[in-house]
Design brief:
The structure is a single chain. Helices cover 35% and strands 23% of the residues. The protein has a domain of 65 residues. The protein is an alpha/beta fold and 233 residues long. The strands form three sheets. Strands 7-8-9-3-10-11 form a six-stranded mixed beta sheet, with helices on both faces. The protein has a three-stranded antiparallel beta sheet with strand order 2-1-4, covered by helices on one side. The two termini are 23 Å apart. α2 packs across α3, α2 runs parallel beside α4 and α6 packs across α7.
Length: 233
């Protein structure tokens, strides 16, 4: 991103941002509510309006038609049809993105939905619906996954399983950008971005962040970064 500037409802949400996100790694996007996390993600996948500046994704302009099978996007709310089963949801979206029907069963196995694949999505738990949404994003074997708070509301065990899946995908060369408001999830990331008021106030690894701030944990580290930013402002 170079000079990324986003206006929503007459308010500047992203302020002339320059940013590079490393390929093949899990980058965590953190910051208080309203800091611009979702707007940044929407800009990357090409669904945000009133965007100026330059965003290049996998060597192409963000939102380019050729990226549709290479970029997976999971929104905060599960984007699935509740009256369809998990398998039917995946089958429908497989046809939308133009992948073979055989890909559906592969994805069901990947996200661990085997026992629940033929149950209506409305009868699945929150964690299982989150897996269906993730499965939809994986149908096109994406090179970039943009995940907006994919673990919100899930119990610790399911969150742990999902993070293990994220790292497995990264080990296969997939780039992941994952937003979260759960501070202990920051330690699960390879790289961290901390946003505040539409600006990047810190970009580092978890270990670097702790070393730079002298904090004992991620929550304290983020608070110290924000306090420093307030003083500098």
């Amino acid at each position: 991103m170079r000079g990324l500037h986003v206006v929503r409802g007459g308010n500047v949400v992203i302020h002339d941002m320059d940013l590079d996100i490393a390929a093949g790694r899990v980058t965590g996007l953190f910051g208080p509510s309203g800091c611009g996390k979702t707007t940044l993600m929407r800009s990357i996948v090409g669904s945000q309006r009133e965007v100026t500046g330059e965003i290049t994704v996998l060597g192409r302009r963000a939102g380019a038609a050729s990226l549709r099978s290479e970029v997976g996007y999971v929104t905060q709310a599960p984007s699935v049809y509740t009256d369809l089963t998990a398998r039917e949801n995946l089958g429908y979206f497989a046809r939308v993105v133009g992948v073979p029907a055989t890909r559906v069963q592969e994805v069901i196995s990947t996200v661990g939905l085997g026992e629940h694949a033929d149950r209506p999505t409305q009868h699945l738990s929150g964690g299982q619906r989150a897996r269906v949404s993730l499965g939809v994003a994986l149908l096109g074997t994406p090179r970039l996954l943009v995940l907006d708070e994919p673990t919100v509301g899930l119990d610790p065990l399911i969150r742990q399983e999902l993070w293990a899946e994220f790292h497995r995908l990264a080990s296969e060369g997939v780039t992941l950008l994952v937003s979260s408001h759960v501070m202990d999830e920051a330690a699960q990331c390879d790289d961290l971005l901390l946003l505040r008021d539409g600006r990047v106030v810190s970009q580092s690894s978890p270990a670097q962040l702790l070393a730079q701030t002298g904090a004992a944990d991620m929550s304290d580290a983020f608070l110290r970064i924000i306090e420093r930013d307030e003083v500098a402002a």
